[in-house]
Amino acid sequence: MAELPPMTAHVYFDAGTGEAERKSLTDGLAGLGLRTYSATLGALRGETLTWLVLVVLPLSGFLQNVGQILAQDACTALKRILGGVLRRAPGEPPAPPRPLLLEDTHSATRILVEADLPVAAYQQLLELDLQSCPGRTLSYDRERNCWHAAGGHP
Questions:
Q1: Distance CA 138, CA 37 (A)
Q2: pTM, two decimal places
Q3: SS3 62
């Protein structure tokens, strides 16, 4: 059987994202089998970005592959790779938290990844049906311990 070409992720960084965080994320995604292309975005039409990093990729396929490749360690690896770019360096001044966004190229569903999500959030992320909420943004509700779409259920 012919080998499938690697999946591609387009990674868009806010201009304030440090080089170490950029390298950590792109190396981590590459280690999970993604070919990454990155760019830095400044303000869009005069508006500042509300996110730190936007990763656009075939998310359903990526999450399935991660689950198969890493099995038990998939959730921990996702937390380390995705959550790591959001952690603040010691001594950094406080700032409003800005998330990392994962956007599925097929359904246009976005996943809002915040710093310090519990491992359970990543476990559920691997099982989400992105086709059930096309074009919506999902975030993790820490009180209910589940992913939900703005204005509705996942």
A1: 24
A2: 0.76
A3: helix
